[in-house]
Amino acid sequence: MTEKKTSLFENGLIWFGAGVSIAEILTGTYFAPLGFAKGIAAILLGHLIGAIAFFLAGYQSAKVGKSAMETVKMAYGAQGGKFFAAMNVIQLLGWTAIMIYDGSLSAEAAIPAGRWIWCLVIGGLILVWILIGITNLGKVNLAAMTLLFVLTLLLCRCEGVIILDKN
After folding, report:
1. Residues 92-131: pLDDT tens digits?
2. Has residue 3 been placed in a domain?
3. DSSP3 helix / strand / coil % (the chain, rounded to 5)
4. Structurally, how many domains does the chain consist of?
């Protein structure tokens, strides 16, 4: 069985999409009660800590030619690997829930149909994405990231956010 890995371009699309996604932008607004300066500081600090941790884990994984979970097992043993895998699943479930919720808010703003309907549609699309599998994601991710970026621009225009000064 040949193992299909994602290319640098495909990984870039995934993380670009995560960085400019509606969920990321809306989640950032949850820091608004902190005020602008503290909110920006919290976002930058969180990104810095996360980027350093993920870079180091990715670097170690690439260095030994194993997945991140395999390198965790090398450092913490089989039980430690299971613990970190469980924590990763919990984190991914939480982030997916936020993405579905925030996506439903945005979709409702663009095309009113009811937030629960949009939650079901977005959840269904996520299931389709999972079922397609890693071996066929290249073109799907390119289309999804392009459409999400266009939708983000459309929502910014619809909500009166100034993207470019028209004067």
Report:
1. 898 889 889 888 887 888 789 999 999 999 999 888 888 8
2. no
3. 85, 0, 15
4. 1
